[in-house]
Batch of 3 targets.
Target 1
Amino acid sequence: MRKVGVAFRQPTLRLLCSIVCLWGLACASGSSFAQHCLAVDANPSAPVRKLFVIAGQSNAVGLASVRDITSGPNNYVEKDTVFPNVKIYGVFNAGPEIAGKDDATHSSTVSWSRFASWQVARPGFGYKNVTHYPQYFPQGSGAQDMFGPELYFARYLNDRPPKDHYIVKLAVSNTSLNPTTNADSWSPGGRLYKELMKMITEAHNTKRTEVNLKVAGIFFMQGETDAMHKEWARNYEKNLKEFVKRFREDVQSMNCAEVKNVPVVLGRIQNNSAWAHAKIVRLAQKKVARDVPHVSIVNTDDLSGWLDKSGLHFNEYGQAQLGKRVYQAFFPPS
């Protein structure tokens, strides 16, 4: 009698083995995420490259436009500005499906990772609600013109050996660190946080035949929304410490980082009267940078003269200076 069974072809068997291995990796790591940065077995000689993460709220998103300053020494970015040695994985030139949803209360309906793609560093990774608030921007500005700190961070990375650098960016306006039920927040384990983790793994996995990307740091420009609520502001130190702790644990357990204490750079929120409890949040940022290893702060107080028409967001010059300071924080002069 012929034995009854299932015959697996070799490709199918390899696929099953991969699934089993990935399942084992997830269980062994203790990670709460199904996705992981996969091994570069297709190209074991793929060079290791640094992957920097940019996250936060509106000043991380970037409301600066290439049309902000049309001439003079402070005109840092033109429409055709490009830094070819840096690639960015994020939401580029927002289309109609997501335009208008760059806000904590609308963001929860968007799977941001669905719209992420690799692009050469250029304007277009900034604010996605431009057409809804034309009064804040120079005439003719569109999503393709908007940028944040990623652009001038890329400008300095561009000239740095090995001249092959990578950034992941996910930022949403008006998002807090305090868990909320009716809006997206950066609370660890929450929906937006999971979207960021997914984008980090996708950035690695889509490039793994070329390079072995490892998270080398995160720039977190956030806190203004928390500074508008007294309770949230009081919770900020605790929430920020938890965010840093969880981010480091998760990128390592997902095999996306090689070091335990991934460097964290915080953007210091301005002492702006629009944020009633800014002093509490600023003090919390200072304490976290003092108490937690490998956490530093970039100051933005002197950029208060370089804001857009809302008086809240850095313009072209302000974002260029912020990006430069992020670079200097990750690569301090020796």
Target 2
Amino acid sequence: MRIVVALGGNALLRRGDRPEAAVQQENVDRVVTALAALAHDHELVITHGNGPQIGLLAMESAADPALTIAYPLDMLGAETQGLIGALLARALHNALPGRRVATLVTHTLVRADDPAFEHPAKFVGQVYGQDVAKALARRRGWRTGPDGGGWRRVVPSPSPRGIVEIETIRELLAAGTLVICAGGGGVPVTADRVSGALTGVEAVVDKDLTAALLAEELKADFLLILTDVPCVYADYGTPDQRPVLDATPARLRGAGYPEGSMGPKAEAAARFVERTGGLAAIGALDAAYEIVHARSGTLVRPDLDGG
């Protein structure tokens, strides 16, 4: 079975972790332990979030006195693909001796007129108190917004329209390679209508939506979205919170999950299932094997009964 695995950005840096190399190495070892059993039995394509990492790089770039202008988000996104991809590739190489593993820096096509550029909503970087966040917004020219119990930077997140390297990914899979690609949703680019020339844009594409598109383009059987909760919850964070173990695209969309947390994951799962008739699931990283075998997580299946 071909499975596209979408790892949450907290797979490498969880809330409260210090953004140090040793911490990320320890966390990536945990990720690979969770995925190794699946890799033995199935064909995997792995993508990942990059919110904490790109936020850290953006802060460092903005504060660097050697720079006249901070590095743009598309370049920082490429850096995070190399960083996280290298960590994952090394750990997978060690866990799966003899298996081909490749990390591919990937570009994602977006539209220059996407409404998201006027309405930034994607959280990146670390969590701050409200006063610190507002001070950073004034000093750096950032936009910030509330995220859980704190505040974070928000940036544009246009919808993914295509994956530039999709044919290369197909060729790598055909050669038996475990591919790590489209990290952080891919480097966002626009394409000239006439020449096709690519231009980077100041944005971060949602990794779950890119994972859904990647899974569709690769004709995957299963889209596995891994995060830091065991499953999707109805009325999350309230006294009426309850697990949703079985869902359809219509039911996921009807629940109105928040855009800053479960919303993109629910939409990604819904898109993939609707467009392909395959299966998707959302659940905890450490339960990856159990989720694929229907023993954990939220299973998303086609609307065979109309919803």
Target 3
Amino acid sequence: MTADSTFEIFLVAPPGLEHILCDEARRVGFAAARQVAGGVSFDGTWEDVRRANLYLRGATRVLARIGSFRAFHLAQLDKRARKFPWGEVLRKDVPVKVEVVTNKKSKIYHAGAATQRIETAISEELGAPVAADAPVTLKVRIDDNTCIFSVDTSGEGLHKRGHKVAVGKAPMRETLAALLLRACDYDGLEPVVDPMCGSGTFVIEAAEIAAGLAAGRSREFAFEQLANHDALAWNDERQALPTAKTPNLRFFGSDRNTGAVEMAGQNAARAGVGDLCRFTHAAVSDLQRPDGPPGLVMVNPPYGARIGNKKQLFAVYGALGEVLKSRFSGWRVGIVTSDTALARATGLPFLPLGAPIAHGGLKVRLFRTDPLA
């Protein structure tokens, strides 16, 4: 595969939010992006792989489909894996991890046996070591007797932006936060308030979007370890990153937990948006509307799954709803929770619900409103 080769690029999305990621991908410039099960797909080049990792805020990972072949039994898999042009993508001096997923629709349905055959082919034919903690992961899907090979070009999950060190309990992942903000029609041109901000994820993501910062500007990626990596082009791409805009906006977070407020402030400073964010120690009942134009209240309250007394949560949600209805006229609201009854306790006029979303081992939903009266 050369720098100009075109192949399928697959963007992994949280189930239920594929359409939001597809919209983001098109806005970033991947016009042919199409929504598929589990993510977004489009044909592109290695330059597109780099850009997707660098700029997309909602993608969990970026996979490059590097080839496929048919195999009906393990001996055939072994023979064809040994002839596969691994050296076009993988380096012999960089360890590789192999992950295989198969199903009963294929004659090869034992993932462990298939993994062993592919690992042996890579180590013996290419000479690359195989390791569980390798920086490069080869993902193999065997479906209907077709073996499809993809390289995870991201490495660590893309929610790891590279500048957050402090997180609270059950943190909202940055990638999920970005998609949920987009699902609430946030475009970086309005203020955002989070009255239960935890480590500040919603507030910081909103500020970064408003400042025009690239999501992956502070981290490294697995594609930098591939045989066909164009280091000069990548360096030029990073050098050409847009400088941060200074929007005439501020982003506000508050929390009852003093430690969370301190964490959020530190995280915002490390992300380069400390000057745009204001974090304060306050209960929900003390929440005040910021001066200036209306915007979006985005909150991920406790659900009850990790907190014992659920009756107390109904009071918290009720208080949140009263504050928003009385003080935030003209603002839209987005609430993420796994409990519909708790959401309804706010008394807010929610729009029709979308699909459930996997988060922290639970299924959550986004409850949205139009601008409040």
